[in-house]
């Protein structure tokens, strides 16, 4: 699937899944903006891309806090100037922090919503304004299997990911007349380290694979392949969907 020199913006692009998506888009001939709050991670990513000889005119990195309207607006303006108005946007940035429901602090709840849900809203809104000018585009949001079913100790995360699904469906309905498609990715357990950083213990993770009929965790590259499909013309009549990438886990549960 060729993205034909289209401009793609990927948030959370210094992380495992975001970087896999952004680099997959690069390989498919897109011009790609890597957005992340982690400036050190972006610096290392830039060095890696340069060392591999990827033409500098085809990519840019922008330090961005997706939870802040001014930051995300400035980031898109930077992309406009360096690469052009975007045709594709992947709202991937997210956080997770495990805690029992009665132990969730308001600060944790608010941070999760600000990044996971408000960040998706702001990213999609900025991108869609540009896509409307260009006559179309593809929005891809990052939900989760946790947006479809509950999981203990992740109430804030689950709620944010469920919110992304209905936000995406509503965007799809409203923007279809402008030839802008909006779809959600719903990964299951992907081997990124996020689960451990969220505070889920090793014993839990070791047993988790038993829930997956395919017998393993997913890979960032497998999520990236799904994103490429939704970004490409191969999915031009698909909008408002939630594509599950979970090795069959929800089918059995």
Written overview of the protein:
The mean pLDDT is 94. It contains nine helices and seven strands. It has one domain: NAD(P)-binding Rossmann-like Domain (Rossmann fold, 3-Layer(aba) Sandwich). The longest helix is centred in the middle third of the chain and has 29 residues, at 106-134. It has helices at 16-27, 39-51, 69-82, 106-134, 155-175, 194-197, 202-208, 220-231, 249-252, and strands at residues 7-11, 31-36, 59-63, 88-91, 137-142, 180-187, 242-245. Helix 1 (16-27) packs across helix 8 (220-231), helix 3 runs parallel beside helix 4 (106-134) and helix 4 (106-134) packs parallel to helix 5 (155-175). The chain is 46% helix and 15% strand.
Helix and strand topology:
Elements (H helix, E strand, L loop, with lengths): L6 E5 L4 H12 L3 E6 L2 H13 L7 E5 L5 H14 L5 E4 L14 H29 L2 E6 L12 H21 L4 E8 L6 H4 L4 H7 L11 H12 L10 E4 L3 H4 L1
Parallel strand pairs: 1-2, 1-4, 2-3, 4-5, 5-6, 6-7
